[in-house]
Amino acid sequence: WTGVNERTLVAVKPDGVQRRLVGEIMRRFENRGFKLVALKLVQASEDLLRKHYWDLRSKPFFRGLMSYMSEGPMVVMVWEGLDVIKTARNMLGENNPADSLPGTIRGDFCVEVGRNVIHGSDSVESAEKEISLWFGQNELHCWVHNSRPWIYN
Ligand code: DGI
């Protein structure tokens, strides 16, 4: 069971919460076999969002992105499992929903990059950074997934 402890940060953005997609999105991650280790509803501060999207600070859409992400609460979660970072990105679809295949979250639920419903970490480094930004150590739960032997061989 090496590698099954990989973690990623997934966040349902304010549009996803408003559009009542939280349950549907969580169901997809549960059904896939991933383990939920942290979860909260949060109205992100500007400071937090700035840190989260620091790499995009010089992009022309940055101000719009900050305001979009502040428009309401988000559901932020950490999912754990084998290759979860890459698999979650595949489940999300492409950054631009128009390039996202049907069956992916963005491919099924949105049409515009500026309202693309969900975030997922894109690498081990960004997952670690984002998880520590959004969650305290005591909010990350260690528990045994009792279906583990039926998901991993
Ligand atoms: O990791 P992703 O969310 O797939 O993509 P990213 O880290 O390059 O961009 C982060 C978010 O920034 C993305 O989910 C939506 C927004 N964004 C990225 N490119 C554009 C954009 N927003 C607008 N309006 N226009 C863009 O070209």
Looking at this protein, list some descriptive labels.
single chain; 153 residues; alpha+beta; 8 helices; binds 2'-deoxyguanosine-5'-diphosphate
Could you explain how this protein is built, in words?
- It is a single chain.
- The protein is of the alpha+beta class and 153 residues long.
- It is 39% helix and 16% strand.
- The protein has 8 helices and 4 strands, in the order E-H-H-E-H-H-E-H-H-E-H-H.
- It has helices at residues 14-18, 22-32, 46-52, 62-69, 84-92, 105-109, 124-134, 148-151, and strands spanning 7-12, 35-42, 74-80, 118-120.
- Strands 2-3-1-4 form a 4-stranded antiparallel sheet.
- The longest helix has 11 residues, at 22-32.
- The radius of gyration is 15 Å and the shape is globular.
- The protein starts with 6 loop residues before the first strand and ends with a helix.
- The relative contact order is 0.24.
- The structure holds 2'-deoxyguanosine-5'-diphosphate.
- 2'-deoxyguanosine-5'-diphosphate is lined by residues 56, 61, 64-65, 95, 113-114, 116, 119, 122.
